[in-house]
Amino acid sequence: MKDNNCVLKFVDIANICIDLGHWPSHFKTSTMIVILKLNKSAYNSPKLYQLTILLNTIGKLFEKMIGEQLQFHTISNNFIHQSQLGSLKQRSTIDAGVALTHTIHLGWVKNLITSTLAFDISQFFPSLNYQLLPLILDKMGLDHKVSNFFKNYLVGKKT
Known about the structure:
Helix content is about 45%, strand content about 10%.
């Protein structure tokens, strides 16, 4: 059974962080562990190890709450293009497959040859321009407190 009082306290804390424009430093610190990949004949290359970053559990919970709200706001206000499918609620790998199949079939109808280029942008976030994000959030119409919060959230992280 969910404890609504506990949930409300977490929401209060997240709201206070946003109101103050501050993300506590103990949530910005992560720990990296190194795990050997199994069934390798030798371990003389960095590729043979898996790096895993562990975050503060409560900090992860707050990040998830804030991320859910940010995603809801951006999708409900059409700030994310319809073709963006990755890491969004209600948009799955099946949706991406259907969209790709549709595009291919449209090409076939027009006697075109269709090719696909796929790439991994999982490392996009670490290279994000931290000065640009608050400006984008302001332009999206979010409360200025939110952009101030992200100015603080994005700096000073350490592993």
